[in-house]
Amino acid sequence: MLKICALLLLSFTVVLGHRINVEPRTSECFYEEVKKGDSFVVNYEVSDYSGGIDFRVTDNTGRTIHWKSGLLDDFFTVVAATDDVYTYCFINEDGKNEVRAILWNVHENSRTIQSDDESTEHAEITPIEDEIVKLRDGIYIVKFEHEYIVNRERTHRNTCESTNARVKWWSFFQTGLLIAACAFQVIYLKRFFEAKRKTRI
């Protein structure tokens, strides 16, 4: 029974989904407090593929522990050796004044094992724990990719609806213009023949 309880309490996961627009030549920074032995994962993608984004992670001393420049997506994970506060920033250094739309998730893992003999219990379930962690991470990645696909589908749908609306109103304008041109031609020809008939009389 203790093994079952230990497995149930093995991993506590929090997944937070976010979306933000990063203005040109600005940065958006966020903070994550992580306890010793816990881990957190950050996944991000530029949702509109307008260009890459810089991504930087620092610890509470200001030391850069992760830096990627100009990528459309990235994946970062860390296991805290001590209690720490991590800062991760999305930096838009684009010189074309283009806004970057970022979709990202924060994935927090807090492992807790409770038993009468913690060390013995941990040794017994370590292989199962490893498999559960792999399964959990795989599910998380699938979930993130699904959210990204849903977001892309929503963006494409909005673009299509906007394009269809513009095409519809342009078609109405062309139709109105064609009707007006036809009416003008009919009236002009009618007056022309009436004037010609009066001239003959």
From TrEMBL:
<dbReference type="GO" id="GO:0012505">
    <property type="term" value="C:endomembrane system"/>
</dbReference>
<keyword id="KW-1133">Transmembrane helix</keyword>
<feature type="domain" description="GOLD">
    <location>
        <begin position="27"/>
        <end position="108"/>
    </location>
</feature>
<protein>
    <submittedName>
        <fullName>Emp24/gp25L/p24 membrane trafficking protein</fullName>
    </submittedName>
</protein>
<dbReference type="InterPro" id="IPR009038">
    <property type="entry name" value="GOLD_dom"/>
</dbReference>
<feature type="transmembrane region" description="Helical">
    <location>
        <begin position="169"/>
        <end position="189"/>
    </location>
</feature>
<dbReference type="GO" id="GO:0016020">
    <property type="term" value="C:membrane"/>
</dbReference>
<keyword id="KW-0732">Signal</keyword>
<keyword id="KW-0472">Membrane</keyword>
<dbReference type="Pfam" id="PF01105">
    <property type="entry name" value="EMP24_GP25L"/>
</dbReference>
<keyword id="KW-0812">Transmembrane</keyword>
<comment type="similarity">
    <text>Belongs to the EMP24/GP25L family.</text>
</comment>
<dbReference type="InterPro" id="IPR036598">
    <property type="entry name" value="GOLD_dom_sf"/>
</dbReference>
<feature type="signal peptide">
    <location>
        <begin position="1"/>
        <end position="17"/>
    </location>
</feature>
<dbReference type="InterPro" id="IPR015720">
    <property type="entry name" value="Emp24-like"/>
</dbReference>
